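Researcher: Here's a chain I'd like modeled. Treat it as a single chain, no partners, no ligands.
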Amino acid sequence: MAITRAVINLAKSFDLDVTAEGVEHQEQVEFLLREGCDEIQGFCFAKPLPLAELRRFYDRRTGEGNVISLDFNRA
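Model: Modeled as a single isolated chain. Structure tokens:
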């Protein structure tokens, strides 16, 4: 946790956005959000999906007040 906190603080000191990858547990999500992480991805949210399934996943989740940002043009 100390290393993660230090990396986030270092990135923020350079005015960089921070993306955490490989997040698997809700406790990790909560910690990262408390520490100021900007984006979080990993199995905690979903396994890797083909684009068509990703669109369905996105459509289901965006109506529930979840914060999900996808750029389908980059796929």
